[in-house]
């Protein structure tokens, strides 16, 4: 039995999927309703998920966390199925402590120089609590 066959075998009920992916059952059903995953069904009509389904759910979760909506996720999956390379998705992350200190120093210098208030006071307020 090949590795790909093993990865496609429907083995996991939704309870295990919830633990593996930290998604709710409702989220998993919603992604199925929207055609993002297609789990197998047992004789009792219960959903059974494969390792590939788990990977796909984790990818959906990751893309959603990075700000991609369901239509975008669907398009990404369609591109992958057609063999089209998907552009790397980069999203701005929270500024590091070093970045904030650098901005603080720059803003304070400029504010003092021109006698005006800092433009990033909201970002800097966490240092003054």
TrEMBL record:
Cited SMART domains: HTH_MERR (SM00422)
Ranges for domain HTH merR-type: 11-79
Family annotation (PROSITE patterns): HTH_MERR_2
Record bears the keyword DNA-binding: yes
Top-level taxonomic group: Bacteria
Keywords for this protein: DNA-binding, Repressor, Transcription, Transcription regulation
Listed SUPFAM superfamilies: Putative DNA-binding domain
A Pfam match: MerR_1
Designated name of the protein: MerR family transcriptional regulator
Taxonomic lineage of the native organism: Bacteria, Bacillati, Bacillota, Bacilli, Bacillales
């Amino acid at each position: 039995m090949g590795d790909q066959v093993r990865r496609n075998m429907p083995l996991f009920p939704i309870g295990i999927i919830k633990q593996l992916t930290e998604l709710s059952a409702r989220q998993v059903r919603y992604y199925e309703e929207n055609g993002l995953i297609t789990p197998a069904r047992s004789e009792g009509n219960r959903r059974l998920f494969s390792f590939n389904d788990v990977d796909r759910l984790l990818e959906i979760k990751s893309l959603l966390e990075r700000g991609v909506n369901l239509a975008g996720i669907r398009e990404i999956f369609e591109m992958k199925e057609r063999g089209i390379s998907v552009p790397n998705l980069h999203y701005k992350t929270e500024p590091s402590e070093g970045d904030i200190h650098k901005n603080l120093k720059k803003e304070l210098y400029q504010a003092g120089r021109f006698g005006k208030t800092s433009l990033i006071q909201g970002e800097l307020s966490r240092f003054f609590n």
